Amino acid sequence: MHDDVIEIADGFWNLRGSFRVLGVDLGTQSSLVRLRSGRFVLLDCIPFGEAALAEIRRRTDGGAGVEAIVNLHPFHTLHVKTVAAMFPDATLYGTARHHRIAPTLRWAPETTEGEAFAARYAEDFDLLVPRGVDFIPENENLHFASVLVIHRQSETLHVDDTLSYLPVPGLRRLMLHPALGDVLQRRKGAAQEFRAWASELVERCGTVRRVCTAHMRLPPPGQFPSIAEEVRRAVQRVEKKLARHEEAFG
């Protein structure tokens, strides 16, 4: 378990957690974000260590300043109940799958992938939900889609799985999750819809200066002089998958 708390920018702290697969720690993340109102939200739930939890409480008046816990990835569910119990007065938001698998929790009615939630936090965040793909696929091993969050004030992108940082020497880059080809909807136009959404993401990243990714590692400061250009390259690398889908479905 990690207790890493990294100040990304004024009003944005990334918290690193442990997530092991076959003995390898892939890592995971949460972010504490200060809103324009002065209150805070937690993006995603991870197993907070003592140091991380103490830091959150120190910055949020013992936790009273946390107004919401926002779950952004439909398959990141392991620690939702634990974190909800840590901050019982915070409003709890999740995807439709969170509501389904943990029905006893006091979920707010707006799901994080929906327009009503995006409108509620429009003053602070831009929320981007991939189009042309199954957001919650039947195959629960396909973890491509999540709600991407851009915090305007700190110019920071928080993203789970949809984009990851590959820290391999010589290949340090952002990459789209390899499950894209499996979650593209099997219908005409799905690849075009995803391509259009990806273009919107690249454009929106024009004002993004920092990116926080869930797995592997956090990109070091200055790794990408242009986040938009790095995302554009990641999209270019999946063009063959999109072209194959178009050949099969139109």
Keywords:
250 residues; alpha+beta; four-stranded mixed beta sheet; 28% helix
Characterize the overall form: globular
CATH topology: Metallo-beta-lactamase, Chain A
CATH level-4 homologous superfamily: Ribonuclease Z/Hydroxyacylglutathione hydrolase-like
CATH C-level category: Alpha Beta
Strand/helix succession: EEEEEEHEHEHHEEEEEHHEHH
Return Rg in Å. Answer: 17 Å
> Strands of the largest sheet, in order across it?
1-2-5-6-7-8
Q: How many helices in DSSP terms?
A: 8
Q: What is the quaternary state of this protein?
A: single chain
Mean pLDDT: 93
Return the structural class. Answer: alpha+beta
CATH architecture: 4-Layer Sandwich
Q: Tell me about the biggest sheet?
A: 6 strands, mixed
- The total count of strands amounts to 14
Task: Provide the domain count.
Answer: 1
Describe the structure.
The chain is an alpha+beta fold. The longest helix has 15 residues, at 190-204. Strands 1-2-5-6-7-8 form a six-stranded mixed sheet, covered by helices on one side. The chain has a four-stranded mixed sheet with strand order 9-10-11-14, with no helix packed on it. It has helices at 50-59, 80-86, 96-101, 115-120, 180-183, 190-204, 227-236, 239-249, and strands at 5-9, 12-17, 20-21, 24-25, 28-34, 40-43, 66-70, 91-93, 125-128, 148-151, 156-159, 163-166, 173-176, 210-213. Strand 3 and strand 4 (24-25) form a beta hairpin. Helix 6 packs antiparallel against helix 7 and helix 6 (190-204) runs antiparallel to helix 8.
